[in-house]
Amino acid sequence: MNWDPVRDIRTRSGATACGLAYPGGVDCFAVEEIPLYEPCGEGDHLYLTVEKRGIDTPELLRRLAAAAGVDRREIGWAGLKDRHAVARQRVSLPRGAAESRLEALGDEDYAVLDARPHRNKLRVGHLAGNRFRLLLRGRCDPEALAERLREIRERGLPNYFGFQRFGAQRDSHQRGLHLLRRGGRLRGRHARFLLSAYQAALFNRVLDGRLDGLGSLLPGDLAWIHDKGAIFRVEDPAREQARVDAMAISPSGPLPGRRETRPAGPALDIEDRLLHAAGWEEPFRTRLTGGRRPLRVPVGELESEAGPEGLRLAFVLPPGSYASVLLAEMGVPPGGPAGGGEEDDAPPEA
Known about the structure:
Order of helices and strands: EEHEEHEEHEHHEEHEHEEEEH
Helix content: 25-40%
CATH architecture of the domain at 160-297: 2-Layer Sandwich
Structural class: alpha+beta
CATH superfamily of the domain at 160-297: TruD, insertion domain
Largest sheet: 8 strands, mixed
CATH class of the domain at 160-297: Alpha Beta
Shape: globular
Distance between the termini: 19 Å
Oligomer: single chain
């Protein structure tokens, strides 16, 4: 397995070649979580809406735990936001401790904007999506820009895992494969991270292999229903094409493991070929949880405004999808200046 899974996050129609390039990178990066549900007003947990800048989510949670006098493990969050973004996100704390020290929560790097009770602790993935606003520094061909935005609106975004999943050296997937081949116990947060990176790399490899066919289904495909987060097996692709064209459903790809539902027919043949080329061995399946993930996702509220500073861009992505992948479609290299503010709010699959 000697490929770079970040390299696969490519500008599939050549953004730079067709007039899109933003050498100045990304500025004014803001991200706001879209809650999956609102606090009900009663219960043992206090949901805080927090705005932060200059610190990442783990540092925010550390400061909240210290200020509220609670164990860090008692705090819940829906997604991770890095230190470069101006980010609004929700966290939950034990209500008794948090309410008694609410005035002590906040410092020069974060502020509590809202606090309301709820019955359950907030969990990773408990969000409907993320709303992004940013500035791309540079100039582009207006016609190329309009065409690229039209393609993204109509065809969706390839749902690659972003560079964040693969570590600073982009080798976490290779280390995850080494763990599986070595055998033994696979426990602890670090091992789960490496294993989920390997699963993410496998998914990216399958997505890259099917990139030119994301707007259609194959016999035996497991189609993803976007508004339900569920899958069904495709028997007659032609019968489902209207729903594919409407971005209601999309082909899905593997996060290999024992709970993953497998496709059939031509779809299974393609997956098996690409997975085994990436080092996958069937005995690994019992050691990973697994699941499915859509190969593309709709981009909501996509708006742009060109000005002398560059291009102001706003959009909404589902949870677990990466702004850096959309920016690659706009001519910003993955893992480059687009890194600031990116999130990784998909629960590890391993």
